[in-house]
Amino acid sequence: MVLDLLVGGGTEIVEGTLRKGERITLLPSSEVGGEAVEIYYLLSGSLAQLGAEETDIMVRGDYLVTRGLAEEAIFTAIEEVRFLYVTSQPFFKEISSGLQELMQLAVEVELKDGYTAEHCLRLQRLSFATGKALGLSAHRLHLLDHGSYLHDVGKVRVPVEILLKPAALTDDEWAVIKLHPTFGREMLQPTFVREAGRIVEQHHERLDGSGYPFGLAADEILPESYIVAIVDTYDAMTTDRAYRKALPKAEAFDELTRFSNIHYPRELVEAFLSVVHKLES
To answer: Are 255 and 154 in contact (CB under 8 A)?
Structure first.
């Protein structure tokens, strides 16, 4: 999503663009300044609301006026969308200076770590689809959307000589690497998606307690963190890296299945496999 501030001050007018498949979440009033009035006006494209009837689609010229919104409402771009956002409670700086800067950092750190710029988007797309298939609420899907994209942003605080070291890491260096989920949670703390920090902090934890940074196990770990872990593992296995070629998808599926009820709950692996078969078949 790209946002440009057109008018600032007491009332803000923002122009935004969503690529096909990207989402925008209308936040509860408690997160955007109490009784703020918000207007969303579609300049082009079309949007579908999560959970609404398939025929209930917003198109060019349609608009929404919200006040006192009780819970998140998530809209997905069916095709590229341009919209105007007007709010009586200034919110642009928090979005642009906080969240979007973190999203850019997340992409940059993945590029350094040998992934492509699409890694974060793939994790976001597959994590959201898995969460949706599992029936997560709009609030939890909203946090999963951001937690999956920003899962590795904490690596920006890991010294590059450790992150990119070609040889085996020492115990002290590996201890630093294991801190990156906590670094990520801390970086999300000042933003309006601070709750997603728990997803980020736990995405390397494992069902059997073998993960990090805390060695959590079983129900101590958020389902959303398991989802990100599963998708991250799948994407790592099926992506070409500098030191090896990508595995065939069938081998990656077998590997995830092998670790069901060891590293990840079986029902979450099965939900992911069902989703990825539909989306990538």
So the answer is: no
